[in-house]
Design a protein that fits this description.
Blueprint lengths: L3 E7 L19 E2 L4 E2 H11 L4 E6 L3 H8 L8 E6 L6 H11 L8 E6 L2 E3 L3 H10 L4 E6 L2 E2 L4 E4 L5 E5 L3 E2 L3 E9 L15 H12 L2 E6 L3 E3 L3 H5 L3 H16 L2
Parallel strand pairs: 1-4, 1-6, 4-5, 8-14
Antiparallel strand pairs: 2-3, 6-13, 7-15, 8-13, 9-12, 10-11
Helix pairs in contact: 1-7
Length: about 250
């Protein structure tokens, strides 16, 4: 995957993880039995899929990330950093800022990855489908979503007939991972002062080119909220990712 570079969004303030993120960059929150930063798991997962270079889009508490990972040798990658620009707002602005610096020059595609997402989806297969169909972008999509609340089934006169506690519902949910043609990132500059990658850029791309989906039933978890982080099964995370990294790194 030498013609793909990862762009990892890790500049946000992590407001859903407060008060922890008053002190930590959210991607540096410890997970697993060895209490390694969340971002370390993300980088090793990406590296295990054959992608060896990444630009980290940093802002809030950037020094915690830069001081820990440096050039990337500890995770087997070559890392560069792009600090958020006050002139370009939103995560789309952060992505364009790195693009305008030439940090994606020479790469056909960019893997955009939200750093609070953990998953075991097959990135190699996603790349294969993206290129086979000649998509301008490909979004990773989960085929169902578990609601974080119970659902009441209400009958006549407002009587609750039954409760479904945190049910899975059949919605195709984007999980914060996208492949995009590098040249398409240049469209962000014409989209206004504040751009969201999923809400604005992806919508624009669907209007002017083929945007594919990569549907997966594999494990994924959004660790961006305090409730999810507090309930995290650290042992399960280690089992999932140690096995995945050993298998894919040997390919």
């Amino acid at each position: 995957m030498s013609s793909i570079k990862a762009a990892i969004l890790c500049g946000g303030q992590g407001s859903r993880l407060r008060p922890l993120t008053y002190y930590f960059q959210k991607t540096m929150l410890p997970i697993g039995r060895r209490q390694k930063p969340m971002l370390e798991y993300v980088l090793k997962y990406i590296r295990s899929s054959g992608i060896r270079e990444a630009t980290l889009l940093v802002g809030y508490k950037a020094e915690q990330i830069i001081n820990y990972f440096g050039g990337g040798s500890s995770v087997g990658m070559k890392l560069s950093y792009s600090r958020d620009s006050p002139k370009l707002e939103g995560n789309g602005g952060a992505l364009f800022n790195a693009f305008s610096k030439g940090l994606f020059d020479g790469y056909d595609d960019v893997l955009v990855y939200y750093s609070d997402i953990l998953t075991t989806l097959d990135l190699r297969k996603m790349v294969e489908e993206h290129r086979t169909h000649k998509n301008v972008a490909t979004l990773a999509v989960a085929s169902s979503y578990r609601l974080p609340v119970g659902v009441a089934h209400i009958g006549k006169d407002g009587v609750i007939e039954r409760m479904d506690e945190k049910p899975n519902i059949g919605l195709n949910v984007g999980i914060g991972i996208m492949l995009i043609k590098t040249a398409a990132i240049g469209q962000i500059t014409s989209m206004g002062p504040r751009v969201d990658i999923m809400g604005d850029l992806l919508k624009r791309l669907t209007e002017g080119g083929r945007v594919g989906s990569f549907v997966t039933n594999d494990f994924w978890l959004d660790l961006g909220s305090l409730d999810v982080y507090e309930k995290l099964d650290h042992g399960k995370i280690d089992e999932l990712f140690s096995s995945l990294i050993k298998v894919t790194a040997a390919r």
